[in-house]
Amino acid sequence: MEPGLDPLASNDVTVLIEAAVAGDKHASEQLLPLVYEELRRLASARMAREPGGGAGYTLEPTALVHEAYMRLLGQTSGGREIRWQSRGHFFGAAALAMRRILVDRARQKGRVRHGGEVKRAAIELDALALEPEGEEILDLDEALKKLERSDQRKYRVVMLRYFAGLSIEDTASALDISPATVKNDWTFARAWLRRSIAEGRAEGTEGTSA
Amino acid sequence: MTPERQARVEEIFLVALELPEAERLAHVDTCCAGDHELRLEVLSLLSHHDEIGQPGGSSFMDSKAAPGLSLLTQIGATALKGDELLLPPDRRLGSYTVQGVLGQGGMGIVYLAEQDRPRRTVALKVMRRGVGSERLVRRFEFEAELLGKLQHPGIAQVYEAGTFKDPQSGTAHPYIAMELVRGKTITKHAEDRKLATRERLALAGQVCDALHHAHMCGVIHRDLKPANILADESGQTKILDFGVARSTDRDVAVTTMQTSVGQIIGTLPYMSPEQIAGDTDDIDTRSDVYSMGVVLYELLTGRLPYEFRGRSLPEAARVISDAAPMRLSTIDRSLRGDIETIVGKALSKEKERRYQSAAELAADLRSYLDGRPIAARQDSALYVLRTQLNRYRGAVAAAILFLFALVGFALYANAQARENAALAESESSAKKSAQDALLVATREKDRADTNAADLRTQLAYSNIERGRLLGLSGNLAGAEALLWPEHLRALNSRQTFYALWELYSNARCLATIEPGTGVVARSALSADARFIAATGSEPAATVWDTATLERVAEIKGAGGATQAIAFHPDGRLALGDSKGRLWVVEPSGARTPVVLRPEGSPVLEALFNQAGDRLLASCADGSLFLYDSRAGAMEAPGGDKPLASLPPTNAVRVVRIRGIAASPVERRFAIGSGDQRVRVVSADTLDTIIEFPVPDEPSPRLDFNRDGSILGVSGLARVSRFFDPSTGSLLATLDAPNGTVNDGRFTPDGKRFLNIGWWYLQVWNVETRRVEAAYSLSSGARDLYVTPDGRTAWTNLAMVLRAWDLEPLSGRSRIEVADKARTLARFLPDGTLISGDQDGGVRLLSDPDGNVITTLGKAPRRVRSISLSPTAPMAAAASADGWLLFLDLENRRTIAEFPRYHMVTNDGIGFSPDGSRVVLSALDYTFKVLEFPSGKVAFSIPSDRFEPLAARYSPDGKLIATTTRRNLLCLYDAQTGALVRECETPNSSCPWTIRFTADGTKVLSGNWNRAIYVWDVATGRNIRRLEGHRGLVTAIDFRPREPDILASAAADGRIMLWDLSLPQNTPVLTLDALDGWEAWAMDFDKAGRRLLATNSVGTTVIWDLRHFNRHIGGNMLTQLRAHRASLGEQLDEPAAMEQRSLLLSRGKRPPPTPSN
User: Fold this and answer.
1) Same domain (yes/no): B729, B802
2) A157 is in which domain, residue-wise?
């Protein structure tokens, strides 16, 4: 048993996930706060180790998600299997939780939108290796809300790839679609999101007259 | 939008992305056929696809990062784990009490602290990094003392400096106590108070005064930026952080290393070109003036002079060194005129052009505010011109050196400095001791020698890594200059060999010929590309065989310098020299040269037409001569008389012919002259058929395309233009951003147009008029030739002739099945491939085309892992849903199927060395050992309730290594299943894939945390950690026959090679060619000659690991000559020549000798 790991929490998650897989909507809803709590706890534990209360500390979201997975599900009770579909449920919840955490943090930091130069390298690749700038995550959050309304599957692909850091292969398994579909969705959704963000920004600067 | 319509949009969008950019629009138009709304929707999405680096483009979710940046990130990440230091509140530090943290940067942490006496609140900056030596501490204190002397209202006063010993680690941390400044950054201050331009200028003048004071005290800031310039409530500005913690220049590099990449990027925009270049000797007060210029720019416009968003670090460095800043007036019209001039002068690339002091800048700011004329106005136009001409790549090369300084050398420099000191000490003590005891002296000398050898090794590593960085940034010459001496010094070193391999896979230089006769005015390639000739004065011309790169002929001249050179299709060579002599020779000397013109006005150009029956030559006086050049015609009586000629032009204004081209289909020549005109003339009479202007082009260089329908005109106008030679109408203009275009040629198939200029060879698509590829040439190029097969371009780079590989994909082949169905593939010993597919099929594929030969077996879902029996033509494959197949490869059938097993990684099945058993991961959270091929379960190893991932037998069959979703690699007894040893990795570094070394003493794991760990099997101790990947390491494997060479593939889409015989834990070679998609599986062929990798979208790429051998061989001779003197005894020339001939002969196809 790893220190600091609540045995009940781990059990709860397993039970909830299995119930969710079996189609229990209520379980799905309960899963999110648990995962959110675990992620938040991990994040603040890391930040506590940082000087200055971690105000300037940068999260490594996908690493956190993976660590949460190892803590909550890496060790399952009774030798029961965790199937990919179940893992998909976990990562789905974790991605959503991570997104909330990032959005909350961005708001807390109170960065001014559209202010100043962003002096930063392009952030990494297909998964969130480092916490994005505040403005970016808030814009993305808005765009994701739109995407969720317009295309559920693409929305899930983006959530799993971007926030949970799943590979194409794993995303495909989690959603039970082919990797080629994941790749197509991912390509399309990125263009769609970029456009949505660009439009959002244009509206933000020019007022709603456009 | 309806779902149907949305689906349609998506379909058109995705298909369009598969097409070359040029065809996308047409595709969208066709698909949308009049549906305007649909068309707009698709186009707007396409415009947002991967808009990396575009202004205003969003940076997140970029699918690729620049290599330079990634390298920096890798190294930066490891360097960051310094000895961190954090003090709790109320902690005493000397005469200070810590009260809180004000902030932290890369170098240190700034605390709010209370000083005892005098009682005051101060900012206490404590360096993160401990200072090791007494010498450095003294140096630091000296600097701090200097800073203490800076007393100016505009500078945050330094009160005291000292060192503080961390009781826990025992290291000494330097600290500085300084004036606590409460205020905002100067830019924020101006913004919040909505200051007018004049007020902002006055504020900048104030900062300049303070800066000048510091300069007069001999202190340079070196890191001036808004974050370091605060303004308080009263509007008083204070500069912070003067030269803090820059005890020595070497330490600057180290300190900078310690900052995160983000901080480097935050500082980068304010760095002067000389700082970017990393030349510490070159940094002076004028560097601060530059930074002040950037601050001023930002203060006035709220923006930086250069757009950095979305750019990689090397790109950003290049921009600072090379690009002109965005003009102030384009941002704000009101800033045009004097302000623009002042800022422009401060931002000059060359120090000499800037304000020579901060006071001068302040003076001009005040002159402007007072309405007096400013000093900066006195710039001459001539100077501007020179600046343009000097926009050389040297600056960029230097910029890259700076990057190297950041990431590579700093480590070595520091170590070397210490070693040097140690060496010096040991040598001097040896001398002393020698007087007392000879024995001691001898011992000391041995030690000194050992030190010297160590230093040499370190320097070699440093040079190689620097060379690789330069290569990645496109500086071929710089990289060669560092890598080749190291390679020639140690010809058997795989490290240098792979470094060169990597270099030439990026800069595809096939061969270099160095005539050694000074500047080569002109060169010519024979029609069959077998020979290349270069002009000189004595010999008049030299001819090389392009296959062997050997000199095959030297042609004696008559005293003039040859200026014109042309090959006849039959191999004869026409030469024209500065004394006006024009003659035709047989390079082999088989026939007597025919002198067509003994002397006169210097010959400038000569060209045979493609039929070979005409020779056209132009002279410096503007005259033109046409000869009959059929075989034997020139030797015949009167054959030296021109068929036609044009007289010299007006002696007052000579119009010279600069370019000649022969139409491939019509009996016509095109001639381009200095009066900015092109004439198409008859190849029989020289009568003008059509004449048209080429505006602004005083030196047109011409080439016809394959069917003579396009005439390419390149030259001083900094563009290449396409004209219709029958009408003279302009068809297209190709911009050459790098300046003058020295030559332009069509490829033989007419599909591409190549042009060369300063430093670059660019390959244009004739139809789309876009650049398809660019080559960095390492110097300005003069002539350009394309071989008839279109695969190779020869360039004349003044001192050397270089051949370039024009095939973008050479060295690798791709198997891309239409349905993208492969998930993984492996080489079989008989030369076929076995693949595991999306649909659950296991198939045999032909190599290299990837056609399906037969289906061996079928699982319900995608195949995740295939393992080959080491003893028989058998294999085991497993799918994602737990189907296990045993396959007979000889009879091409499935032997057995089992539905219970579970596969996550591509490494989930392992054969025992004798082929009698397999170990694999099972659904019930165990590893199962099965008899092969019966499938009977011998025993199970519980996976301790963690999901099982990979399993593998040791080479002697005695151990089984396994990984699960936990940070452990476990070793079990292969007979009993008893746990033998656990190898623990750090948290969240779950090992994924396993390999044993051939001798079985070590086991390696590729991990989730991007590293590869090496474990000692006997002790379970971690020996090494190999770092370089940027994603989950999905596959590792040793190269057959080379037990130290490890290949790895990862989710970052990269393949890396590692040499375990070296102490370095970084890759010796990086292949970046899976289109950015994650690598899923990787395999060597039996000979270790080829490497295969599959990505997660079903593409298989096969590399020929020897492909770039001929690039190395093709450049060896020249490099050998270049370094012969400096390497002296260290050079084994015969061995080098032997390696060269081996490399040249080994290539898949012969070196650049195309055949027709």
Assistant:
1) yes
2) 7-116+129-209
